[in-house]
Amino acid sequence: MAFLFAYNKCLLFLVVLLHASAAIAAAAALDNSTDLASLLAFKAASTTSGGGAASDNIIVANWTTDVPFCTWVGVGCSRRRPRVVSLNLSSFSLQGTISPHLSNLSFLSYLDLSNNSLSGTIPDTLGRLPRLATLRLSQNLLSGPIPPSIFNMSSLVSILLSVNNLSGSLPTLVMLPRIETISITDNWLTGHVLAELARCSTLQEIYLGRNKLIGSVPSSLGNLSELVELNLGPNQLTGAIPTSIGNLTKLQYLYLAFNHLKGEIPKEMGNLVNLQKLHLHVNGIIGYIPISLCNASKMIVLSVGANNLTGPVPATLGKSMPFLRLLQMSENALSGGLDFIASLANCKDLNAFDVMTNQFEGVLPDACGNLSMNLQYFQVFDNHISEKIPAGLGNSSNLISLDLSSNELRGTIPRTLWRLKKLQAMYLGSNRLTGSIPSDIGLMTNLAEIFFADNEFSGQIPDPLGNISRLQKLDLAENKLSSSIPLSLWNLTGLIQLYLSQNRFEGLLPPQMAKLKAIGYIDLRSNRLSGNISSALGELQSITYLDLSNNSFHGQIPQQFGRLFNVEYLNLSHNFLSGVIPKSFSNLSYVYSLDLSFNMLEGEIPEGKVFSNVSITSLMENRALCGAPQLKFPPCPANMITISTSSAKLRLIKFVLPSVASVLVFLACFSLFVKFFMRKKAKASSKEEPPCLNYHRRIPYFELARATDNFSEDNLLGRGRIGKVYKGSLDDGLLVAVKVLNLEVEGASRSFDTVCRTLGQVRHRNLVKIISTCSNLEFKALVLEFMPNLSLDKWLYFQNQCLTLLQRINIMLDVSLGLDYLHHQHPYVIVHCDLKPSNILLDENMVAHISDFGIAKLMLIDNKSTTSTNNVGTVGYMAPEYGLTGGVTIRGDVYSFGILLLELVTGKKPVDTMFSEKLNLRQWVSNAYPTAVMEIVDTNIFRTEFTNLQQHSEGVDILRRCLSSIIDVGLHCTKDLPNERLLMRDVVPRLQEIKNGILLN
């Protein structure tokens, strides 16, 4: 009986157990279905774009119900049960919004949606996730306020919301007991830095920079004993640095730069014995550098530039900070001597030394020769340093940039400096240096910039200087250099700026000048150059600034000057030029300043745009100019014999009328006598009002900070994969675009070097001009000409205005001319590799300029050469062969250009959702060509100037023929086989013919 009872009891237990197991399984199935539904809802709300990532459309293809969701890409499940615990979709080119249904993933502990294009707001429901420890939503397009629920999650350890468009203030109710990292940089947050953050005792990292936060730095932050990194700049913070910061003994990184902080550096900061990086630059901090700061023996970066600091630098600074790599103290009022440099010999990793624009005086100590072998930047520009350049500087064999300009240095250049074989920029200008320029300078083959202007150098330019093949900028102006300009100088085919003005050079300008294909600026004024102006100057079609004034040139102005299509400033005044002004000057449509005064010119002043902008002073004091009634010159006589008479007739006149020739000689001598006094007067006036030059620019970091209002988001023009572009106004009022690279992005530094190398060698009207660069250990930026009409991409897809057909044709022609220059006219073949609408910028006249040479390739053989690359552009615009071979040729650029043509005509992106693996933009256009062209054309074209034209059949035919011609060029440029594509030198005349046809009709 007992056995039976026990048996029944066991049976009952098994039944109950089976029912329980079934219930658990049913519950699990229900829970699994909830996770599945949440993931499908997320998929529906977010789509993938054609942004160029390798994972494009992978969610659409992979997230299917045919397989368990735990096997989906980016989805991580727990081991014991099929529940979603992590979702990692970083860099998947996602668009759309974040589904609020993600809150149903109740086991989710890790959510990473960073580096996508997600928009909309952050769902408040994410605050319901009970196990979420990591929330990464950085680098998206999210907007709106931060949901308060996010700051009330007991499980949260990391919040990363940087690089979005979030606005509003930080949630005031903070209940984050486990939080270690809060990162919300690069947004639009307003309000104050929360004092309530001090409640989060576990906080180790706070990043709130690049916002619009106001108020002071809360002293309560000094209670965060675990804090390792604190970043509160740039913002608009005011007040003094709280002394409580000194309590953060674990702090390693403190960034308070680009604010409006006042007061002194607290001596309590000397308690930060673990501090490695201190950034206080661009504030209003006053007082001395506290000696207590030397207690920070682990310091790597000390940056206090652009403040109002005074007094001397602690003499033991370097001995106390042996790990120092960057010392940045420029743009203050620091004084005393530079004896502290001796202590920096203890810093074996010192990479950059920058004390520009202070009030240091005395001498550069011999201890400069004991500095780190890793030193790359040594900048003492604009101080009161006197005596000689120490020979020991030649020991810094890894030096890249040496700037001792604008001081009171004397003596000669020590021979030891020629050991600096890696030096790229050598600035010794505006001192009192004497002697000759040694021929050893030719050994420094990596030099790209030489600035020796405004000294007392004498002798001649050493012939070996022509061996520096990488030289781009040479400034020897305002010295006592003499003799002729060496022929070797004209072998520097990469030269883009040449300043030799106000010296004593003599002799002729040889035809070898034509080798300077990349030259943009030539200033040879106020020398003793003579002879005819070589017609070879007309070959320099990249030149924008040419000044040959105050010399002794004679003869006629070469007709070839009419081929200087890009010239903007042209000064030939104060010479002995004769004959007529070439009619070809009418082709110079970009000249804003033309000066031909004080010569012996005669004859009719040509008509044209250039002469509608000049004043009478630009033509005064010539022999017998006539015409130009707007300038009040006398009318030309109908029977006037001009100097354009053939040379044979001129010789005949000389033989028949020798007496006239004698009179002319006498008059010429008299002119020389008169001119001597006129030139002295002109030189005196030129010293009072020197010409305004912006061409040799060395722009320090803090001028860029001022120009962009501390890199304010208000000045943000755009952001890309490797950085941001800001609008800025330099100290002299010049508007620029400042591209600041994010050095944390892989390849950013390499891209910077590529742009410098590429843009440094090119000069063309349809390429974006690089005005300057700014580079140090932790900051790299390009200063480019500002384009008020932004990018073509904006006009096609984000502007209310519509581009007319003529504007589109002009843009196509501009881009083709720029590519033609890169492919066929430059001494080296340059392949852009990433041509697309966002890289086409438009100036105030809607002239197109190609930009973003970040992955451009230089090919040194011919246009059939190829080179390999791991980064070959953007999906949709990338030539098909790149994906197969990785080889780069100019025909890859042609393919991208063809896609651009088709996009301009159709208004369709090559990654439009209507296209797939079976149908792309080219195939779609090809299917409609030539019979159904009007059906695929961008309808905005019909809304512009051709509205009336369409009412007539003849007008429609004209429009159809024009569009068909453009499409035909686009289809020929995008053929699958590279050798079947057109070359850019063939594309240019075709587009010019199309433009002429539309203008004619």
Automatic annotation (TrEMBL):
Domain Protein kinase: from-to ranges: 711-991
Endoplasmic reticulum found in the keyword field: no
Membrane topology recorded in Swiss-Prot or TrEMBL: Single-pass membrane protein
Listed transmembrane segments: 655-677
Reactions the enzyme catalyzes: L-threonyl-[protein] + ATP = O-phospho-L-threonyl-[protein] + ADP + H(+); L-seryl-[protein] + ATP = O-phospho-L-seryl-[protein] + ADP + H(+)
Gene Ontology molecular function: any one: ATP binding
Secretion signal, residue range per the UniProt entry: 1-27
Domain of life: Eukaryota
Main location group: membrane
Keyword Transmembrane in record: yes
The entry's keywords: ATP-binding, Cell membrane, Glycoprotein, Kinase, Leucine-rich repeat, Membrane, Nucleotide-binding, Phosphoprotein, Receptor, Repeat, Serine/threonine-protein kinase, Signal, Transferase, Transmembrane, Transmembrane helix
EC number(s) recorded for this UniProt protein: 2.7.11.1
Family note: Belongs to the protein kinase superfamily. Ser/Thr protein kinase family.
Protein's name in the database: non-specific serine/threonine protein kinase
Species of the source: Iris pallida (Sweet iris)
